[in-house]
Write a structure and sequence with these properties.
The structure holds 2 protein chains of 2 kinds. Chain A is of the alpha/beta class. Chain A has 8 helices and 10 strands. The two termini of chain A are 26 Å apart. In chain B, strands 1, 2, 4, 5, 6, 7, 8, 9, 10, 12 and 13 form an 11-stranded mixed β-sheet that branches. In chain B, strands 3-11 form a two-stranded antiparallel sheet. The chains are: A alpha/beta, B alpha+beta.
Chain lengths: 247, 433
């Protein structure tokens, strides 16, 4: 799905700053970033280490709070929400895919994917089972439903994480370097999977990456440097810039 | 919620060595608690059984009679009328017996001892037959006047056998010395402290020694169908006997022989009734129970502190190891309360499994000790009123011990669990270690 399909804004960031305090030193991680992400987009956030990619994803994901500016997710100003409301927003609106997969080791593949549905308490057992199995089919792991994460390869684990992120049918999925711990082929497969789900389900994806190949699948690339918003360019432009030695 | 239990359960299984160590400690403390409670309850039951047979009923209507202000005797005059009223006023009554009470000297050819004496009608004392273990002679011999039952230690000290005679010497109510001869008809097994200082003679022998009338008793021992009714019956009798014109003494929770000094100091003369219960009459030895219970309390407290530190430490380690997991779960939408519950469940499960194992161990040990009828040293027998160790195990006390220790372990886990729940998702997710 491309951005023109729906122009409603799922993420709106205005002049956002984020400072970290290390002892007596204040380190600015973001210095007045503006960003608008529309529903159905498949956006990559690019930049070198320390540019603020993860910080920006954390703010959009409501797991951290901005020092200044306004972060709006699904129309809600995150600063105005209580801890409980933020948790509910994460549960119902946002899916997370982590670089290190972050699966619950003591639960099976099925139980890991089912977990957010149990937290939501909206579906009965049969409905949950149907939803989970459908997603496991989509990510090609239906036959591994009873396995534990430590019995899977890195790529399989990340596919479980993708299924878990999508199981609540969130409007927005955030992925922080989802392919960083995978070999290039497996990484490519994960991005293909994310792209497929984006196109089929219309889910908005925002992912950070260093990898030009991964970036090339994005509708748009948002480039950051030293906590500043550099520009928002197409994937092709980003590839050319990387080839030329730029970020 | 089930998923949280599943996570907790599987986490315990994943860290098997840690779980076994801590679970083992919890099991040991539970087993110890079950055994100590068994010992305490066993002692209490032995005391109750022995005391309510040898020296007291569940409720006693006793009294003091004073000819002059300074000379009290443990006497209830005109007891048949009082007994009749009691039977009318106490529907909870199972049966009642009258006992004579006194303090006398037993003299044999070679030795003498000072003891308390109970004057009994052996045909109306069903409890004595169940509790006394006759080593020589026969209990029914007490149906005959001029006979006496001694306990083993007393017989040994007096150097007398069944069939031999002793002399009983005492002062009458009016201060005259009197003696009667009594033939030893039975020697019973010792029953701890209560049997060290008491003998039994027929009621008429006691009356003859003290020159009492036939309607005089030392005390009326009332045995209730349910011991739980003691306070109610005691209170009711105070009222009804007062209403019937008797003077009833204020409640003094001590054994009757400890009250002489107080009663003798008071200026009144004549008859006053004293209504007590079995606990009052053996209060002078229940300190052993109190001491054992206190020791149990201190021991369990110290062990619980050690276990508490262990649980805290284990949960700290678990939380440290699983900080990223907590961050992830918080990120995907788990509320703080559920994070808290997840760790509390872990402690709860550990507590439940540990206490179940411990209670089973304690129970088996108690049953084994009871089955082996372990003999205790004489000095211990004096206090526990039994020559064998009796560990009384009741389902309610075992469940109570399990619930108490599980509740403690769960409560202790609240602190680290609460701090885990307070972790910010972003901090937890990026935790290294």
């Amino acid at each position: 799905m491309n951005p023109t399909a729906s122009q409603s804004s799922i993420v709106s960031i205005t002049n956002v700053t984020k400072d970290y305090t290390l002892g007596k030193v204040v380190v600015p991680a973001l210095r007045g970033v503006d960003l608008e992400v529309h529903a159905g987009e498949f956006i990559s956030i690019a930049g070198p280490s320390g540019s603020g990619k993860t910080t920006l994803l954390n703010l959009i994901g409501c797991v951290d709070t901005a020092t200044g500016g306004v972060v709006r997710v699904a129309g809600q100003d995150t600063k105005q929400l209580t801890e409980r409301q933020l948790t509910n927003l994460r549960l119902n609106t946002i899916g997370f895919i982590f670089q290190s997969f972050n699966l619950v080791q003591v639960l099976s593949v099925f139980q890991n994917v089912e977990f957010p549905l149990l937290l939501q308490r909206k579906l009965d057992k049969a409905q949950r089972r149907e939803r989970v199995m459908q997603l496991l089919e989509q990510v090609g792991l239906a036959s591994h439903a009873k396995h534990r994460p430590n019995e899977l390869s890195g790529g399989q684990r990340q596919r479980v994480a993708v299924a878990r992120a999508l199981v609540t049918r969130p409007q927005l999925v955030l992925a922080d370097e989802p392919t960083a711990n995978l070999d290039s082929v497996t990484g490519q497969n994960i991005i293909d999977l994310m792209k497929e789900l984006n196109q089929k389900e219309g889910t908005t994806f925002i992912f950070s990456t260093h990898d030009a190949k991964v970036m090339s699948h994005a509708n748009a690339v948002v480039r950051l440097a030293d906590g500043n918003f550099l520009d928002r360019i197409s994937a092709a432009e980003a590839s050319r810039a990387m080839a030329a030695g730029g970020h | 919620m089930l998923q949280l239990f599943l996570i907790a359960f599987r986490n315990l299984g994943t860290h098997r060595r840690r779980t076994l160590l801590l679970g083992g400690a919890i099991a040991s403390v539970t087993a110890l608690l079950v055994i100590l409670m068994g010992l305490s309850t066993g002692m209490k039951e032995s005391m109750l059984r022995s005391a309510t047979t040898l020296s007291t009923g569940h409720v006693n209507v006793a009294g003091f009679y004073k000819v002059t202000a300074g000379q009290a005797a443990p006497v209830v005059t005109g007891y048949p009328a009082i007994l009749e009223q009691i039977r009318k006023d106490v529907p909870e009554l199972d049966f009642a017996v009258q006992r004579g009470r006194g303090w006398l000297k037993v003299v044999s050819e070679t030795s003498s001892i000072q003891v308390g004496v109970g004057g009994i009608d052996i045909q109306s004392e069903p409890g004595l037959r169940q509790v006394l273990q006759i080593r020589a002679g026969a209990l029914d011999g007490l149906a005959e006047s001029g006979t006496v039952l001694l306990f083993e230690k007393q017989a040994k000290k007096l150097n007398v056998q069944v069939g031999e005679s002793v002399t009983l010497a005492a002062q009458t109510l009016r201060g005259a010395s009197n003696t009667v001869d009594a033939r030893v008809v039975a020697i019973a097994a010792d029953m701890g402290m209560l049997s060290d200082f008491g003998i039994f003679v027929p009621s008429d022998t006691l009356r003859s020694l003290y020159q009492f009338k036939s309607d005089t008793a030392g005390a009326l021992l009332l045995y209730l169908k349910d011991i739980q009714h003691v306070p109610v019956v005691q209170a009711r009798l105070r009222q009804t006997l007062t209403d019937a014109g008797h003077t009833v003494m204020d409640h003094d929770p001590r054994a009757f022989f400890m009250k002489f000094e107080t009663v003798n100091r008071e200026a009144w003369t004549g008859q006053r009734l004293d209504i007590t219960n079995w606990e009052d009459e053996i209060s002078f030895i229940t300190w052993t129970l109190t001491a054992l219970n206190s020791l149990t309390g201190v021991l369990i407290f110290v062990l619980m502190v050690i276990i508490g530190v262990g649980i805290m430490n284990t949960l700290w380690i678990a939380i440290r190891e699983r900080t990223r997991e907590i961050g992830t779960l918080r990120a995907i939408g788990m509320q703080r309360t559920r994070v808290l519950l997840m760790f509390v469940f872990e402690a709860l499960l550990l507590g439940m499994l540990g206490t179940l194992a411990g209670a089973s161990m304690g129970l088996v040990l108690c049953l084994a000790v009871n089955a082996m009828a372990v003999h205790v040293p004489e000095v211990v027998a004096v206090f526990i009123m039994s020559d064998t160790l009796n560990l009384a195990v009741h389902p309610s006390s075992i469940l109570g011990a399990m619930a108490f220790i599980t509740a403690c372990t769960t409560a202790i886990s609240l602190i680290p669990s609460f701090l885990a729940a307070r972790l910010k998702p972003v901090t937890a997710m990026h935790h290294i270690g």
